[in-house]
Structure to design on (237 residues):
């Protein structure tokens, strides 16, 4: 069937997903579904192509997040297949990095509660260097410090923050948990309990929940990628 042959009203697309007709119009305005045709009297008419595009976008959101989902669909609707697939690849690469980080943290849970600070011979990092390593801003690290998550030493002369290997480890754990949606006060509690060697239980619980979230995101990506493939095929890309 020609994807342009069927005609749908905004309400038809909206009902399928339990959203408002204004939301459908907003998605069109934002470029995440193609522009609608207009009747002589000015009413929007959508086609099967729009219906497939909307299904793809709404599946991409829980898998990749709003920003990436919009980036993917904007590229797809303008016919830029490379840009759309590049954004998809970035999402899968991030999921892989999260899994690898989680595996590394789980493998060292016992060490986190028993190893004394400063065993590593690695040189301390400045706030800028650590921020670059994690892909966050220095302001974020200072915010974590105020929340009690990090406690870096200060250079006596310059008063510059210096993060030793244990601080770096704590920052990487905090970054992982923040990516999992945990609030700063929860992360601070976990870090305090780990530092006090009260047992790795809170950390293990957090990581187990995060692994479940990674699995859910992976499944969502499978569904979303299939919906995107449907759109690309329907659009002839």
């Amino acid at each position: 069937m020609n994807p342009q042959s069927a005609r749908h009203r905004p309400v038809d697309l909206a009902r399928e997903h339990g959203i408002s007709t204004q939301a459908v119009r907003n998605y069109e305005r934002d470029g995440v579904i193609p522009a609608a045709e207009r009747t002589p009297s000015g009413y929007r008419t959508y086609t099967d192509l729009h219906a497939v595009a909307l299904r793809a976008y709404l599946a991409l959101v829980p898998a990749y997040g709003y920003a990436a989902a919009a980036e993917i669909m904007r590229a797809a609707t303008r016919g830029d297949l490379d840009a759309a697939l590049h954004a998809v690849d970035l999402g899968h690469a991030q999921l892989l990095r999260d899994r690898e980080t989680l595996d590394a943290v789980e493998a060292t849970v016992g060490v986190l509660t028993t190893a004394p600070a400063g065993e590593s011979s690695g040189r301390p990092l400045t706030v800028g260097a650590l921020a670059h390593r994690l892909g966050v801003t220095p302001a974020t690290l200072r915010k974590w410090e105020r929340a009690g998550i990090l406690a870096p030493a200060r250079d006596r002369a310059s008063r510059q923050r210096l993060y030793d290997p244990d601080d770096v480890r704590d920052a990487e754990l905090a970054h992982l948990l923040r990516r999992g949606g945990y609030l700063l006060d929860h992360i601070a509690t976990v870090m305090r309990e780990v530092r006090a060697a009260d047992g790795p239980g809170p950390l293990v619980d957090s990581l187990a929940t995060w692994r479940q979230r990674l699995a859910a995101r992976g499944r969502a990506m499978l569904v979303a990628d299939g919906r995107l493939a449907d759109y690309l095929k329907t659009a002839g890309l």
User: Anything to note?
Assistant: Strands lie at 37-38, 44-45, 125-126, 153-154, 161-163. Confidence is low (pLDDT under 50) at residues 113-121. Residues 201-235 form the longest helix (35 residues). Residues 102 and 207 are 7 Å apart (CA to CA).
